[in-house]
Each structure stands twice: as structure tokens, then as C-alpha cells.
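step 3/5: co-fold with NAP
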Amino acid sequence: MMGQSGDTAVAVPSEGWNYSPAPERTRPEIDSEYGLFIGGEFQAPQSDRTFNTINPATGQRLSRISEASEEDVDAAMAAARVAGPKWARMKGRERGKYLFRLARRVQECARELAVLETMDGGKPIKESRDVDLPLVAQHFFYHAGWADKLQWAFGGRDVKPRGVCGQIIPWNFPLLMAAWKLAPALACGNTVVLKPAETTSLTALHLAKLMQEIDLPPGVVNIVTGAGDTGRMVASHPAVKKVAFTGSTEVGRRIMEELAPREVPLTLELGGKSANIVFADAAIEQAIEGVVSGIWFNQGHVCCAGSRLLVEESILEPFVAALRDRMAQLRVGDPLDKNTDIGAINSSEQLDRIRALVTAGQEEGAILHDVQSTPLPEQGFWFPPCFFTGVQPAHVVAREEIFGPVLAVMSFRTPEEAIRRANTTPYGLAAGIWTDKGSKIFEIASRMDAGVVWCNTYNQFDAASPFGGVKESGFGREGGLQGLRAYVR
Ligand code: NAP
Ligand code: MG
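step 4/5: write C-alpha cells
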């Protein structure tokens, strides 16, 4: 099957059409151990404790990461506090230059960073290469542009930074979430202590190396790695003047309780159980692609994943049949292979969670459709894309966030029923509407309890467009002018 090797390989079809594997050949340099990034330097943790970060597609160790203790978090906070006044006083256009430089370095290193993201987190290379990394660079470019225009952003008012920001991010878009958090904070003149997720710290640490290269003043960004406890220390630290958290609703609630007695503004980007609503008059092929990307993008490890599908009853049967056919074509496997659609599940814990929820769905009587024909790799953590039909709104697969490649399909008869069903969830992050009728789009979009509504498309992001949820999906916005507001007084 293989022609030559690598990028220039020409696939010669033999029995059936199958692509030659074309695994990404770029290999980033991975250190055997990473310190904490404090005051512009990598430092050994005072606890001397480290933990492994693995490649979830192979189960193999990639490196050892430092676990920050209370003293380390104190040191990071102190470095951010010391760096604060000078960074805040710096002219906006000078701060902007640092962000422009960082954005350009991210572009220059995009290949290595994309491969590193895929190795550490399990997402397909075509996603980290074509979605994550371009958006990371875009976020730094976009916010670099705001750094010297803040008074125009806020109607001529003289705005001031808040000070030290504590930022905590999850594992599904590790570098992109770091960019979403860091770029607006820095543009507005704040300094930061960032805590990446335990399973995916590598790209944030490599971003720290780029910060060293561009001579970002020491202490402006500090990165403390570790588990949930390190995150708790960051969020509750007395030096922190603003907290931004992306992760589960459960942890978000805990942080909110902790901060309740203090006057620390909080942004929470939490979970979701978003619905794609497909009307009979929709362009069906496009809707299928939208539904597929809505739920099977990044193995379903997406907070705004379209994990519920509501289809108008008159087209339910053909739509489900088409969805099945499309699902059967998805390639699950080596995330570094450029043809892979669905990579590895991020961790064994997440795999266990997905399995438990799918088993619960089957026990409740929903029908599981799993048509993957390719065998799953033997090493690493994998879950085939699948969907459930025969789902009742009360079923666990219709209510709980699975955060995996599992779709719950339901039907509706009238637009009113579609609206009611879509909004029957404690979450409110996103929704998708598929119809040929513009008037229907406006009417239904205006009645969705969701922070983001996509119409005849799904999972589109832009640095200029605010993102965030309502209800138990959190509050506050990231991106756009709205996202800057959280970082100024
Ligand atoms: P998580 O357990 O809440 O973890 C998120 C981050 O918080 C991680 O860095 C985690 O550290 C840290 N953390 C854990 N316990 C903490 C505590 N008590 N105090 C402070 N920080 C703590 O969520 P996850 O499992 O990593 O991510 C999946 C969830 O994130 C899903 O519910 C998903 O919907 C949500 N999410 C939302 C958005 C959005 O924009 N709305 C985006 C992405 C993900 P460890 O990694 O070490 O546990
Ligand atoms: Mg990892």
C-alpha cells in the first residue's frame, strides 16, 4: 500500500481504497523532566515531587512534571506580584509588542507544538494542526491589537489592570485554553499564575520557553503544574485579584464557594450538554457533517460538544441511517496519523467515566449503535464513536455530560417541542440549529438558553467572538471585547 515514505507518499489502491498511513514526522524535543516556571525561570519544586505525563495513545511516559506545593504557589504569586506594577505601567503598545512577538513565535513553532499537543493529549494531529494552533496564534494576535486601545474598548474610560490573575485550565484544549486565558490578561496589564491540567501540561510549559525567547519580563507569567490541589491553592490564594477557571461544573462550584466571602471577580467556563436541532427542511448532508463534527471532534472532549441530537420526526429514520453510514467511515487510531478522525481518550479515568455512562445508558434501555469496523489499538485508551437511539429525556445519556464520543439522538414534532427539549438541561453552553428558513433560525436562536448558538454550522470559534455559557455552564465571556472586561477595573 505505501508508495514512498512520509508526506510525499502516493497511495496506490489495491483491494479497496484505503489511505497509506502518513504519520506526522516532526518530533518535538521533550525534556525528561520539567520544572515550575516561576519568575521567568524553570525551577525544581520545593516539594521535590514529580508525576508522569503519558501519551494516551500508547500509554508510554513522555516526561516528568513537577508538582507545585503551597510554597511553590506562594513563590509564583510573589513573582507575579513583583512583576505587576512595571507591567501595568508599561505603555500598551509595548505590551502589545510582546504579545505580537509571542504570537509570531507560536506560528513559527506551530508544527512542533501541534505534535506535542497530540502526543500529550491524544487529539488527532489534523485538529491540533488545523484548529488548535491557528486559534492559539490568533488569540495572541487579536489581544496584542487591543493592548494599546483599551480606552477605546471601554468608551473613553481610563481602565486599570486588576493585578495578579489565577487561571486554571482543563485538558481538552490545553494550549488553546492557555491562550484564551493569558492573552486578554496580559493585554490588559495583569500578571498571571496559570495552572494547566495534570494530564496535559507540556504545551503550556513549551509556551513558557517561547516566553523566555521573546524576553517577556520575568514574573509576568508563571506556570505551576500539579493536580487539583495545586489548582485549589491558586484559586484561593490571598494574592489573587481575579480568578478564571475552565473545567467541570463541580470544581467550578467549589471555587465559587471558596471565593464567595472575598471580592475577587470570577469567570467560570464549565460543562455542557448542548443540542443540535435538525429540521426536516435542513440541508441534510451539511447537517450530518455538522452533527459529526459537533460530537466526534476531539473524541467528544469538547465542553460545547453537540452531545444531544434532536431530529424532526418526519426525517428521523433516513437521518439516523445517514449518520450511521457517516460514522462507519470515521477512522479511529494513531492521533499522529494525518488521516485519523478520532484519536485517543485523554486518560484512563476519562475512559472509565465514558464506559460507565454508556453502560448506564444501555441499562436504562436506550439502543447503542456502534458500527466501528476498524479494530481499536491494543495500547492506550480508546473508545469508538457511537450513538444512542430510543433515548428518553430522563435517561442518563440525555442528561449527563459524557465528555466522550457518545451522541444521544432524540426526535421532536414541533418547533416548540424542539425548543423545550433543547432547553431541558441544567447546562447552557451552546446549541446548533439546522434549517433552510432564516425566520425559523432567528426565532429559535433567540429562545435557546445557551451562550453560543450556531446556525447551519457547529464548533466555529474566533478570537473576536465572545464564548461562554449560562445556567450551570458558568458565567463571564472569553474572547472579543466582552472577554477583556473581566481583566480591567
Ligand atoms: P476539572 O476536573 O474541573 O479540572 C479542570 C482544572 O481544574 C484542572 O486543571 C484540574 O486539575 C483543576 N482542579 C481540579 N480540582 C480543583 C480544585 N478543587 N480547585 C481548583 N482547581 C481544580 O475538569 P476536567 O475533567 O479537567 O475537564 C473536563 C470538564 O471541563 C468538562 O466538564 C468540560 O465541559 C469542562 N470544560 C469547559 C470548557 C468551557 O469553556 N466551558 C472548556 C473545556 C472544558 P487536574 O487536571 O490536576 O485535576
Ligand atoms: Mg499526557
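step 5/5: annotate
The longest strand covers residues 406-412.
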